[in-house]
Design a protein that fits this description.
Elements: E1 4-9, H1 15-28, H2 33-51, E2 55-67, E3 70-82, H3 91-99, E4 104-110, E5 113-122
Antiparallel strand pairs: 1-2, 2-3, 3-5, 4-5
Helix pairs in contact: 1-2, 2-3
Length: 125
């Protein structure tokens, strides 16, 4: 299946669009309802992490792609401008939370600032 990519403004009110998109893609990949719920929560946690770093992002891009026996989801903060965030999210805690929801999660960081979250879920279980 062709990878799906969607980009939304980097604002809290757009997180719901990414959750709904993740639900639709999950249904296309025949994920069970409990995994769809887990992915939605992981997307929300990932967005919360990306929206609370020492930068201001213009947009968040989500890419979903089927790879052998899994669904790979990537959320990336685009067009970042450095600034100090008063309530910066703790990347370690966010990663631990996301890891309870998906099979695998990795964070891309630059100078201690997270700008991308990669998640893998089993597909077609």
């Amino acid at each position: 299946m062709t990878p799906m990519t969607v980009t939304v403004p980097a604002k809290q009110e757009w997180v719901m669009v990414l959750r709904m998109t993740a639900s639709g893609v999950s249904a296309l990949y025949d994920l069970p309802l409990d995994l769809i719920d887990d992915l939605n929560t992981a997307v929300e946690e990932s967005c919360d992490l990306l929206l609370h770093q020492d930068y201001t992002a213009e947009s968040i891009t989500m890419t979903c792609e089927q790879k052998q026996d899994c669904l790979h989801v990537t959320l990336t903060a685009q067009q970042r401008t450095r600034c100090e965030e008063e309530e910066k999210a703790d990347a370690d805690i966010a990663q631990m939370i996301i890891q309870t929801l998906v099979r695998d999660v990795t964070l891309d960081q630059e100078e201690g600032v997270v700008h991308c979250v990669h998640m893998t879920l089993p597909a077609g279980v």
